[in-house]
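Researcher: Good morning. I'm working through a list of sequences from a screen, and I'd like to move beyond sequence-only analysis. For each chain I'm collecting a predicted structure so we can compare shapes side by side. This is the next one on the list. No need for commentary yet; just the structure.
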Amino acid sequence: MLRYAAGRIVLTVPVLFGVSLMSFAIIHLIPGDIVSVLAGPTVALDSEAAQNIRRSLHLDQPLPVQYGIWLMGALRGDFGNSLVMGLPVAPQIASHLPVTLVLTAMSLLFAIAVGLPAGVATAKTRGRWPDLFIRAVALLGLSTPPFFVGVAAVLLLSLYWPSFKILSAVDLHHDPLGGIRTLLLPAFVLSLASATTIMRYTRAAMLEVLTEPFMATARAKGAGRLRVLIRHGLRNALLPVVTAVGVTAAHLVAGAVVVEQVFGLPGIGQLMLNAIYHRDYTQVQATVLVVTTLVVLINIVVDLSYYVLDPRIQQHG
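Model: Good morning. C-alpha cells for this chain:
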C-alpha cells in the first residue's frame, strides 16, 4: 500500500511542475503591464518611477529568472507579495481557502447522497416510470448552468422566503455552524450537475452488475432483495462510481469559482478572479498552483480507493 501510494505521489511532481510553468507563462502572455496599474495612468512606462517599480519586483529580469525566483520561494512556502496590495500571498490564500474547501466538500456530499441511491433506483426499475422520471430530472439538472440556478434561487428566495439568509457573511473560524448554514444553498446549487453525473455512472455500473451470475446465485441462496442489491450489487459496481466521484470533485473545485461569485462568498475563486482583473501575477500563480495541488490530491485519494476496492491492483501494484 505504501509503495503504491509513494509511486502515485512521485508521479504528481512533474504534473505540478508543468502546471506552475504553464500558469507562469500564460499570465505573462496576457496583454498589459502591471507597472501601469501600480504607477497609475499618468506615469509613463519608461519613466524613472516606473523603472524603479519594475526593478523592485524583478520584472526587469528575463522570464526564466523571474520564474526561478518565484519557484524557489514557492518550494519554501513563500509565494511572495501581492503586486497590487503588497501583502504576502500565502496568508491571503489561507484565509480564503477554507470557504472553498467546505463548499466543495458539502457539494460532494450532496452529490453522493442524491446520485448514488438515484442510480441504484433507476437501474433496479429500468424502463419503468421511476427510471424515466429520475432520468428526466437528472437531464434537467445536468443541462442547467449553475450560475442560472444560483441567480434564480437568490431571486425566488428573496421574494418568497426573505427570512432565509442567502448572502450573509461566512466566518468559519468564529461561527462554523453559521458559516455552514450560509453555504447550504450554494453547495446544493453546485452539486446539481455532479449528482447527475454520479447517478448516470452508478446506473450504468449497476445495470452491468445486475446481469452477472453471482447476483442470481445470491438470490438463490435466499438473500434479501435489499441485501442482494446493496452488498452484492452496489459493492461490485463501486469502481467506476469512485472514478466519477474523483472527476466530479475536481470539477467542483473549478465550478466553485462561479458559485462563489453568484453568492458573494469569500473563497479562493473570488480571490483569483480579483487577481486576474488587477493583473496580480504572483497572486494568480500561487492560487492556480494551490487549486491544482488540491485536484492532484483528490486524484491520489481516488487512486488509493482503487487499491482498496480492486484486488487486482493489490496483487499487481
